[in-house]
Amino acid sequence: MQKRIQTAISEIAYLEWGSPEGIPILALHGWLDNASSFEPLADFFSKKNLDYHIVAIDFPGHAYSSWRPERTVFSFIDYIADIKAILLNLNWKSCIMLGHSMGGGLASLFSGTFPELVDKLILIEALGPVTREASEAPENLALAINRFLDHSSREEESGRFRSLDQLIKLRLRAGKMKLDSAKLLIERGTELLSDGTFRLRRDPRLNLPSFLRLTESQVIEFLSRISSPSLLIWGEEGYQWEKKVLQKRAEAVRELKQITVKGNHHLHMDEPESVGQIIEDFIRGSK
Predict the structure, then answer these.
(1) At a CB cut-off of 8 Å and minimum separation 6, what does 47 contact?
(2) Which residues contact 173 (CB under 8 A, 6 or more apart)?
(3) 145, part of any domain
């Protein structure tokens, strides 16, 4: 069921499954995805009658959630404040946090920032965010500012698509995933216009480069403050991380279990039964 909440920061749209009395799980999607990213997992849990209360949000700028105010910059770190505001609005004292890709990076940082609010941490294809060397920060900031100032919405001139099938094909071309998974993301992430064409429900500023990124040493500090039992699920054909970076990050998390299973970057959508069973076992078994 789709719902909306107005936080102190944004209007957030979300999908909800399960009873409000169930174990609270906040699900955070990846960059340019949306809440439908977790529909296959939610269906798997529902069929097993598990006592979970899942809230899967659309991050600001994605699908049905509000965009940031005009002439402002999208900042990755701002999403941490959105997550905190959502928990306050839901009146959740703590929860299980489930994140995929960008959502996993944010869940990692949030868990290190507010460890008392996270009972268990479940990450899919991410452990912390993308970083940048400190020496690269000045040049990156200059580039990002110039891109931002040059940016203007191209909504009126472009961004129109003849059909959902056209968008689904483009989504499949962008990365490996099953057709049904691509359909879920595209159907939620588009709107039908009065002229019969389709447009993505997405703030174009999401494609602009970040003004600043955390350094690797900063990310390690966040990861070292995670206090909950943590699970990290990788797909055999998922994103390839630099091994040394990943090893150091994993060593920073006190209680981390890693599992690699069949699948690609969107394995939680394409292989919900195997991924869902791993998640169920972790929730039931970890203290």
Answers:
(1) none
(2) none
(3) no
pLDDT at 155 (0 to 100) = 47
Q: Does residue 146 sit within a domain? A: no
DSSP bridge partners of 233: 124, 259
- The pLDDT tens digits of the residues spanning 212-239 come to 999 999 999 999 999 999 999 999 999 8
DSSP H helical ranges for the chain:
39-47, 78-90, 102-113, 137-150, 164-174, 179-188, 216-224, 243-252, 267-270, 272-285
Q: Is residue 199 part of a domain?
A: no
Q: What is the CATH number of the domain that holds 50?
A: 3.40.50.1820
Amino acid of residue 269: M
What proportion of the chain, given as a percentage, has pLDDT over 70?
97
Domain range enclosing 110: 2-134+214-285
The token pair at 258 is 């890693």
In-domain check, residue 192: no
* Residues paired with residue 43 on neighbouring β-strands, in sequence order: none
* From 36, 101, 181, 228, active-site residue: 101
* 46 noted as active-site residue: no
CB 122 within 8 A of CB 62: no
